[in-house]
Prior knowledge:
It contains 5 helices and 7 strands. The protein is about 30% helix and about 35% strand. The chain has one domain. The chain is globular, with a radius of gyration of 19 Å. A hairpin with an 8-residue loop joins strand 6 and strand 7.
Amino acid sequence: MTHQSLKDDKDKDKEHNKLKVDLIGQKHILLSSEMIQASNFEYLTNSEAVSFFVKKGADKMEVKGCQLFLQKNQGDYCVINLLDQELNNLFMYQTSAVFLGWKTFELHPENNTHYAMVVSVLLREKFIYKDTFDNDEAFMVLRNSTDRVL
């Protein structure tokens, strides 16, 4: 292997590290049975969650929340904004490893039986910044925490 090919490999590794995405939290959306019955399942499965990123520094992006687009029927959809912990804090409980909580959102202005419950769990910063867990381990910690609520 030549010096140039080693340098190219190091550059590829640096580029790969820039694009690395770490699992730091999970959100689960539970819909009321009335909401599911009033929705067309084919359209409901087209619902999406879109991350909301903010540029932090020259080469870093930070996730500040997400928007959930729930499509009930053709042309009929709801948007749930989860844009920052300060705006709609979901976390009611904390352990030494995670923040955990849930919140209910009404999806129809005239019918309070159409709602979604969002359950959220987030690793504490000390575990994120110290790279304590790889993604598989983080998934297991987050999933086990969520299972206790569900």
